[in-house]
Design the sequence.
DNA sequence: AATGAATGAGGATTCATTCAT
DNA sequence: GATGAATGAATCCTCATTCAT
């Protein structure tokens, strides 16, 4: 038995109690969103914990692995698109606007859709496929039969193409490129905007 | 017992003198191409040296940093496109075919063109811009004034979009997606093939 | 998405009040017995709390440190041997059978007797000495003056030797080795069996 | 690509060059022998590197995993017993004396023989079995047919029993217990001493 | 010029322990 | 008295980079 070498007498930040749990989880997701956006999905998890202002253990308590953190971040993006899709009178152009907004916000979301249909990398995890499929379903429901992307996998191929174009130092620059990309595809895209769903459903 | 990793009493491989230098450099580039293709641009540099059969120091002698290794790998791709561009009677469709071939071969090349015009990431290195600019020049020279991609930065935007679509487990799958992507853009693309320039000029 | 590890909005399990205390302690000891048997004395304490179905704090309330958990587990083993020793007509061979049964059941008990008389390791805790001494006393009372182990510390040395031999993947295998070990020592050992003392006295 | 965060300008101890390799390996084995003896085979590998006065990476260069370090330590013990076994006129009692000397020196060696024949723990590694088998072979060759341990697995069972008895704060104390243990088994044991084989064979 | 060992910072992960509720 | 989240030290391991030979 290796002797533990704790120094419990040192000053450590006070345990703020279980009330912080939900708050911490939100802080972690927000931090992960920023860190992943800045450094990609390979960013150190410790950077996320640090930015969230919590210990590393808290991150591991809430998310057992990198995939769960990423999933939690992307989940929010997907949820907004799904929410936009079920609104009365929703049209494809509008959905693509919301989709595009998220593409310009989150490098991680770009990576998700960019990888749609790919199984090459060992870290292509099932959750990515599942999230990506939810986006596809939301969009496809609003795709008229005569639409130029109606055929086969053209819809998600176009999304991957636009994702590939969404690069640039600022959100505005990325948005410009995204809109140009849709234009080159001859696809109408509505206003690029978030679709805020209000307070998060209680499941988190 | 595990085989010792060193040979304390053995003669080390003899220094093969300056004649080896060019050979070693070629071996490093070839190894880097394979390793980057398999594990992406984040692969350990030590893996490249190992596969090339040289010490780590040799890698650092030839390439001061990761960027220059990557650049050397991409250089070859760019050179083929440039070579194809100066052939008598070359046309844009043919060049795009060669470009597309490289996109399907090399994840690293995809990254290069995908990142065209981006300066956000800290590892966006000048060499990427330079190489990317060379590709653009080679293509633009064959772009007729009435071509749908003639305007502004549409040409490289389209290339970035196709790059974004080139994903998949096998080269054949990636090629299928790339061809579909050009089709969605309404751009004619010639046969997807390498343009072998014969023995490489010794400058590297 | 991974199931959330907390229930921010759910009611937490109701505090079941002081009546639970004794029940929780028993559950912890039972859990510790299993966990220590499976993973050795270095097993995570959190695993014990989890298996007992209580929070980590409960474990720390009942047992201030790892040593006291281990001690509580071993206490039961020792008590059975003491109980067997005070039975009318008890003989050494029978006691050694009970002792051997516990050796084959509990890796932790093996460690206790194996370490008898040792003070080298920093985690050699007083409780181990005390428990071990109780075993010695119970046995020695039934050691006739002419017995081959009657001299000095030979008795507990023999016990340590048998403990050292009690290894094997299954209880049956361990029992075979233990019986052979006693045979090599020329010591008669009775049937290898538990000596159930009925419901444990509430003191624990 | 995560940006590397090295600070090469900071003072670091000078690279002492490849000449140190053999020296470092020896230092690591010596350090491992001490650390394993003090804290058992679960001791932190970092403690070994620290005691050897080398960086952690050096340890991993020489030994890819914990098993190789342990193996290197135990290899020396086994080799001495094998060497003693092939000496002209070697007898079992003498070999057991050498064996016993190593048991009193090294907790790790105790663990090796103690575990002989056990496959329960997931970290029961093949090298342990192989080394243990070499000890058995060396001893068995000198076991006359009429010897009390000649039967079946009694030989190694006895060794395991003595290993189980070899505990105590000082080498002298451990030796006393070991000798008493052999006496209880009725087995003659020669002088407890090392069998120095002189400079290590060049393979390390 | 080549070799490959040394170096240690950094990231992932686990777990003992505390403490707000 | 129960609960289980928070905390961060410690360990394992990898790799970029330097430099003696």
Sequence:
């Amino acid at each position: 038995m290796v002797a533990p070498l704790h120094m419990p007498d040192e000053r450590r930040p006070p345990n703020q109690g279980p009330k912080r749990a939900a708050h911490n989880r939100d802080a972690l997701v927000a931090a992960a969103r920023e860190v992943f956006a800045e450094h990609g999905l390979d960013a150190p998890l410790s950077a996320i914990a640090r930015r969230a202002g919590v210990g590393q253990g808290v991150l591991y308590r809430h998310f057992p692995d990198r995939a769960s953190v990423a999933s939690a971040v992307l989940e929010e993006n997907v949820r907004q698109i799904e929410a936009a899709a079920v609104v009365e009178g929703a049209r494809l152009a509008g959905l693509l606007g919301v989709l595009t907004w998220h593409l310009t916000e989150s490098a991680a979301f770009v990576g998700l859709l960019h990888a749609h249909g790919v199984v090459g990398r060992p870290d292509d995890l099932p959750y990515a496929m599942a999230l990506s499929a939810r986006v596809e379903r939301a969009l496809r429901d609003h795709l008229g039969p005569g639409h130029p992307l109606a055929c086969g996998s053209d819809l998600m191929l176009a999304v991957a193409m636009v994702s590939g174009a969404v690069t640039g130092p600022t959100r505005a620059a990325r948005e410009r490129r995204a809109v140009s990309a849709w234009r080159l595809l001859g696809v109408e895209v509505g206003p690029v905007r978030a679709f805020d769903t209000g307070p998060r459903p209680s499941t988190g």
